[in-house]
Amino acid sequence: MVRKVGVLALQGNYIQHKKMLDILGINNILVQYPRELEKCDLLIIPGGESTAISKQIDRNKFRQPIMNFVETNSIFGTCAGMILLSSTKETNNLKSLGVMDFNVERNAYGRQVNSFTEIVQLEFDSTDNFNALFIRAPKVSYLGKGIKILATYKNTPAMITDGKHFATTFHPEIGTDVRIHKYIMEKINA
Ligand code: GLN
To answer: Residue 171: which CATH number?
Structure first.
């Protein structure tokens, strides 16, 4: 049961995630210190700049607390947050958490000016397509066997889960469609 959702508030789009949770009436906090994780059952890592978030995770001593957190709790990562959840090989500025068994190619759809909104189909809701906003989005380059695809864009996975953790290449926190946040809460509560 999700009692409280933490939104990692080190860099990026954390306010928009908070707004979505507020609309859904879900108890939430902006997480700025590792001890605040203890109060949460789900952590959202927002979009932003994955290298900056990675650095802030280490600077603020979050890495081990997050690894302890995932043993019994879920994480939802969007865009840069998805990159951090991945097992993508360590580079100079980026040390992903390796929480899920997939890799990404960063900035695979071009730069900020090449941002776009496209329709994706949600596996779990066929009533209406989802208008997904891609901003310097990553592309999945390897998908582990245990990973399920929940949404697809041009034959590549746009939303995935390993049954416990969730990740989107796009930004479901921007706009007014709350279905993705709602679905994740329901899945974790089930
Ligand atoms: N391309 C960014 C990165 O690599 C992610 C962009 C985003 O989160 N919108 O961190």
So the answer is: 3.40.50.880
